[in-house]
Amino acid sequence: MSSKQTILDRELFTEALRHMGEEDLLYLNRMVIERLNLLAQAKSTVELAQFAEGDRVHFTTNDGSVKRGIVLRLNKKTASVRTDEGQSWKVSPGLLSKAAAR
């Protein structure tokens, strides 16, 4: 789709939005949320596919410390990681990096 067509389509869509009632807007909202969730799930699936059980990984926690460990399980949205200190974490695949094997 060309950028000119995209702009025109957005303008038409914006105009249509201005004329929608509450029921139509709520329906559109549900559709947008479903689509965003589907896109997020697809992204997570692609990111998780980079890892396998047994992979050495590292990630940075909210407090800035770096944790290293092994992927124990790949869940629907996260990877279960056992750190070298014996802690269990469920980590978003976007926050994981492969680490060199020990």
List keywords for this structure.
102 residues; alpha+beta; Transposase; 2 helices; 2 domains; single chain
Question: How would you describe the overall organization of this protein?
Answer:
With 102 residues, the protein is α+β, with helices and mostly antiparallel strands. The chain has two domains: 3-48; 56-98, Roll (SH3 type barrels). It contains two helices and five strands; from the N terminus they run ααβββββ. The chain has helices spanning 3-18, 22-48, and strands spanning 56-60, 66-74, 79-83, 88-91, 97-98. The N and C termini lie far apart (49 Å).
| Total beta-strand segments | 5
What is the percent of helical residues?
40-55%
Strands in their spatial order, largest beta sheet: 4-3-2-1-5
Whole-number total of structural domains: 2
Organism: Hydrogenophaga palleronii
Region (Disordered): 83-102
Protein name: Transposase
Q: Could you give the topology of this structure?
A:
Elements: H1 3-18, H2 22-48, E1 56-60, E2 66-74, E3 79-83, E4 88-91, E5 97-98
Antiparallel strand pairs: 1-2, 1-5, 2-3, 3-4
